[in-house]
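**User:** I keep going back and forth on a fold encoding question. It is easy to fool oneself when nobody else works the same problem. Could you pick a protein and write out its sequence and tokenised fold? Could you put it straight underneath, so I can go through it closely?

**Assistant:**
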Amino acid sequence: MRVVVAMSGGVDSSVVAGLMHEAGHEVIGLTMKLRDGTAAEAAGASGSCCSADDTQDARTVCDALGVPHYVVDYRDAFRKAVIEPFARAYLQGETPNPCVLCNDHLKFSALIGRARALGADALATGHYARVQRDAVGRYTLHTASDPTRDQSYFLFGLDQRALSRVMFPLGDMPKTEVRAHARRMGLEVAEKPDSEDICFVPDGDYARIVEDVLQARGESAPGPGQIVDTHGQVLGEHAGVHHYTVGQRRGLGVARGERLYVLQVDAPTATVTVGGRAELASQGFMARDASWVDGDAPTAGTRCVVRIRSRHRGVSCLVSADGRTLRVLFDAPEEAVTRGQAAVFYVGDRVLGGAWIDRALSEREAAQ
């Protein structure tokens, strides 16, 4: 087959290119130019991806394999589909997940289209997940064999059309095996560290990114507001709601007898509510914009496991769908249900789909 390999310059996608080449496929390497370098990267920050050095690494791998390599400029699309929604979410008191948006709108949607334009049969990536087909021929998405590497949480937006055209060659491999392949192939990136941060926030300063987006629009950052407890007592003042997210403990700037956590961020009133850890727990949540891998929502009262953050362990729940709106009830109270995060649903190792958390349910609402 002719296979386009999405190449980030890391060891995972480099090994995918090598494995596809060794299998006899005609490989075309594509690297997406998503952004310009940040000040943090210029100062030597590491741990991100999609930098100029990463592009050069991808080109070097393709040269070593003897396959063509192209760079496609998606900076404008990335800004509109990922960076601006990221900033908007924080301004609305949400905590976004830009990696899901990037996968949905760029790394698969755009690249699948590009692969088709190049006459390719498939798009291969270095994601740790697996695609299978069930008894009636539907494509199904599954977790990686190595749970410590699984990236299925970020892929719940893939539909049947996308799954029919993607390949995840690393889905059954542990990372040690991937690096062993890279060494065997003589790839210079064999020992390259994994990227861990959001690519456009390599120093972890989310608030600065929000302020940069606003500055580019000629707008000011959110002003100060009050930090209150659950009884409305004012405990202090904050510098802007974009500095806070539900579950945050550090950097609150206020103190009480117990450890305090952010419970709610109310952007319209510029109010941040804090409380003890026990107050972080909720019985469930409402979610919006549900997307199901096979196209069909689960029947009312479906029992499954939900992950409410990328590194969440997953907990048992009941799901009821009303169109693209979901009501989810946990079997036991769960901490830090965060507006704006993705909730992804599983039965066994199979991904059913996911949605975006809209709000946590109180004990009274959950009982209704």
